[in-house]
Amino acid sequence: MKRNLTEYIDDYKSMIDQQIEKHLNKLQIPEQLKESMFYSVQAGGKRIRPILLIASNQAYDHYLEKTFSSAVALEMIHTYSLIHDDLPAMDNDDYRRGKLTNHKVFSEATAILAGDALLTYSFEVIVDDPNLSSNEKIKLIKMLSKKSGPKGMVAGQVLDMEAENKSTTLEELENIHKLKTGQLLQFSIMAGAFLGNASKHELIHLKQFSEYLGLIFQVQDDILDIIGDESKVGKPIGSDADQQKSTYPKLLGLDGAREKKNEYVKKAKEALFKANAGESRLVELTDYLTRRDH
Amino acid sequence: MKRNLTEYIDDYKSMIDQQIEKHLNKLQIPEQLKESMFYSVQAGGKRIRPILLIASNQAYDHYLEKTFSSAVALEMIHTYSLIHDDLPAMDNDDYRRGKLTNHKVFSEATAILAGDALLTYSFEVIVDDPNLSSNEKIKLIKMLSKKSGPKGMVAGQVLDMEAENKSTTLEELENIHKLKTGQLLQFSIMAGAFLGNASKHELIHLKQFSEYLGLIFQVQDDILDIIGDESKVGKPIGSDADQQKSTYPKLLGLDGAREKKNEYVKKAKEALFKANAGESRLVELTDYLTRRDH
Fold this sequence. Notes:
CATH superfamily of chain A: Farnesyl Diphosphate Synthase
Number of strands of chain A: 2
Low-confidence stretches of chain A: none
Number of helices of chain A: 15
CATH architecture of chain A: Orthogonal Bundle
CATH class of chain A: Mainly Alpha
Structural class of chain A: mainly alpha
Oligomer: homodimer
Helix content of chain A: over 70%
Order of helices and strands of chain A: HHHHEEHHHHHHHHHHH
Mean pLDDT of chain A: 93
Strand content of chain A: under 5%
Largest interface: A-B, 50 and 49 residues
C-alpha cells in the first residue's frame, strides 16, 4: 500500500536526520564547535530540501544511497546560511523556529565559525561518499558551489540586504528570491534528477519547475508572515512589515499574492509533466509547500 | 641564469595575482559583493601559500598550469579566514597589513558574506579547472575541505579563541597553530607535490616539513609582535601581549623562542632532504620565512 504524503515525509525526514547525525558524530573536533553545529542542524528543520532531492531522484532511476551525501550537504549549507543570516550584523534574529538562534546560545564568534565549518564540511561529505562515481562527485560539487556561492545564494543575500528599507519592484523581488531561496531548491531538484539519470530534456523542464517552486515557497512565506500562527511559524508575525520589507502581499495585496501563488503552482505542475515527473511525489510536495502553515 | 629568490617570488606573485583577478573578474555578481571580495584579496597579501604550492610542485614533475586553480582557491580561503577573523565578534581588528579591514570599509554583513562567497567560490575554481583530471580535482577538494574545515583551520580558530586570557602550555599552543596556520600551509606543500606526482614516501616527509614550516611561521609571527617594525608588520606591535595571548616568547623568552625556531628550521630542512626536495626552492623559502620582517 502506498504511504500517504505525511508518512512519506516522516520516513525520509528520520532517514535524513540519521545521516546528518552520522556525519556530525564522526567529527573529532573542539566540543564547543561540534555542539554549535549540532544545535542549529537539529533546531527543528523540516528537511524539505533533502526530501525534495530524494523525491526528484525517485521520479527517475531511484538509487537512495547515492542521494544521501548531497542531501546532507544541502541541509548543512542551508543551516549555515540561516546561522549567518541570523547574526546581529545581518537580520539580528534572536529566535528561529521558536528556538534561540545559534549566536544567542553560543557566541557570535562561535556562530560565525560553526557556519563556516558546516559550509566547508558539506563539500567533504560529498567528496568522501563511497557510493558516488568520480564524475558524479564532480558534477554535484560543481552544482552545489555555483548555487550556494557568490553567483547564487550569497548574491541573493546581498541583494536582499540592499533591498531593505527601499522600494522594490516585483521583478527585483523575484530576482532576489530566485537567488536567495531558489538556488538551493534548484540544487535539490537537479541533483536528485541528475543522480537518477534524467535526460537533458527532462532536466530543462525540472529547472523551470524548481524556479516556480522557489517562488511558491517565497509567496507562502510572505503570506504566513501576515496570516500565520505565531506558535507554528516560530517567529513573530508581522516582522516583514516592521522591517519595511518588500513582500508579495505588500506589492499585490493578500488576494493578489494568493492568485500569484496559484499561477505559479499551475506552471510548476505543467513543468513537472513535461519533465515526465507528473506522477511523482514532487506533485504532492508542491501542493504541500503551497498550503504549509509553518 | 637562475633567478634569485626575490625575483622568483616577484614573478610568481604577479602570476598568481593575475590568476586571482581573472577568476574574480568573470563573476557577474552584485557590485558591492564583488568589490568587497576584491578588496581583501588584493589587500597586500604576500601570496606565500600559493608560492609554496608552486615551489613544491616544481620540486617534482613541474606542471605550472595544473597548480593555478589550487593556488587561487588556497589564497581565497586564506583571505576568507582573515576577513572573518577580523570581525568585531572575533578579533575585532580595524587594520590588517596597514589597510582598513573589510568590515571597516564595507559593513559587517558584507564582510561576512564576502568571506562566505570566497570560501564557496574556491571549490568552484578547482572543480571547473580544465587542466585537471577528475581524480586530481577530487583529491584536491578532499584535501582542501579537510584542511580548511571543522577538523582543520576552523578547529584552530575555535581553540585559539578559547585559549585567550587563559594560560596555555607549549603543547597546546603548538596544537592550535598546527591547525590554525599549519593546515593551510600543509595544503600548499601537499597539493603542489601531489600535482607533481611525488611518491608516497616523499609525501610523508613533506607532511613533516609542512608541520615544521607552520611552526616556524608562528614563532616568527610571535617574535615580530615584540621586535617588529610597526610600519612593516602592518599592525600595532605588542598586541599579543595586550591580549594576554600565549606566545612562544612569553613561554620561552625571546632567546628561547629564537632557539626553538632554529631547531624547527633544522628539522624542516632534514625533512625536505628526505623528501628529495633538498635542492628545491622550498629550502630558500624556508629561510625566507625564518627571517621575514613582516
